[in-house]
What does this fold into?
Amino acid sequence: MKRLSIKMKIMIWFTAAMIVMVFGTTVVNFSISREVLDQTIQERLINTVAANAQEIEYYNSPKGEKEPTDFFLSYKEGTLEIDDDFLDYNEGIYTALVDSENNLLYGEMPAQLEEDEAFSFTSVGTIKYKGEKFYIYEKQLTGDDLQGLWLRGFVSENETTNVLYKMVRLSLWLIPLIGVLSLLGGFVITRRSFLPIESINSAARQIAESGDLSKRIDIFTDNGGLCGSTKKAKDEIQNLACTFNDMFSKLEDAFNAEKQFTSDASHELRTPLSVIKANCEYALDFASSDEEFKEALEIIHRQSNRAASLLSQLLFFARLDQRKTSIKLEDTDLSLLVQSLCDDRRILLSQRPVLNTDIQPEIHTMADKDLITRLVNNLIDNAVKYIGNGDTIKVSLCQNETSVVLSVSDNGIGISPENIPKIWDRFYMEDQSRSQTSENSFGLGLSMVAEIAHLHGGHMEVESVPGKGSRFTLILSR
Ligand code: ADP
It folds into this structure.
């Protein structure tokens, strides 16, 4: 049993349950039916005898007009008229008219009664005659001069058994037919339901063997197309397949982003390293004066600073990724923190550009101080880098009922609307020539800012007009 597939186990269980259920219902059904049929036939027997009793009349003197279809027989000094509605045989029920000496006057008797048994069945009883069992019911006639006359009704037990046999015969092919049909239905449904599992299995195996994350589980939804986040599944297993497809897509995206990141990082590192190597070779082979050596060393120094800065940013990203699961948020006086960051920056900037602040005091929020410091510094760094001909940077902090809002705005060169969505991508730089003049520009700052916002359960927004300036806003929910 352990080695059987779930599909097989369900089918076996389903079949066994089906057999037990059909068998049980049939047995219960037959026993109930037998009782119900017995009762019904006994009631019919009583009713038929009672109805026939109404059809008998007695006349002292000969009746003037005689109905040609009625039956007449002499009784005592008069005549008994038996109406043609008297049913001596009706659907298995016999009725006989007998006198008090047990003589048959009219009708039919399929069984004979012993002397001592006669007139003792005023409620339904049973007798056995020539191996056949009969229900019997006797009713004494009442009314003018009818005393001493009895109606005796018989019905064979076979009448009940015959109906039961019919039921058995019907059940014999109907129940297996229903059983086979439901099993077939069950088989088709289980087979169809389990198909996605086979697809999931084969897709997972193919991905494991080929390492190709672009493969998907071939489950097609009702509205067509491979299922995934946009296509809705029609049952739980399809839903599982869709969730797997979604997961594969996310894994593929993450894997591709990681690949892109590694390739971009290598590319960025190669440039300063090539410059350093070229300058070393030049200094060793061709530099002849102290000035030429000094010039080569200065270039080497600058480029090694750039490489070191890139490495430290990459390291920070790696730590940020690790921190995603274990960020330490603590109650932070954000007003104080942002104010002190701006004060420090003012000292570094001396006069230009002017750094203005509009900070609402006493704003507390749960935050990681190091990460928020990094975020604010990055935004101010960018404002300083892209200030262009403008000369004002403004840092403001306020809160409303739902959120804490921190923004850094400048009246610098701004960003073209079509590039705004790209600025959050790692290694994206809108103006390469301008950015690269700065040692620390790698296009990593804003993606780091966005990730820090995300880690705090918040998000970044940007408004920018080329030539007029930009405003970067961090929104944290309270
Ligand atoms: P970078 O190291 O190049 O500054 P970022 O990720 O910080 O990298 O920024 C990405 C790009 O967004 C920059 O190359 C620049 O074009 C644009 N950008 C960022 N901040 C500003 C700003 N304050 N004003 C204008 N452009 C900006």
Remarks:
- The radius of gyration is 51 Å.
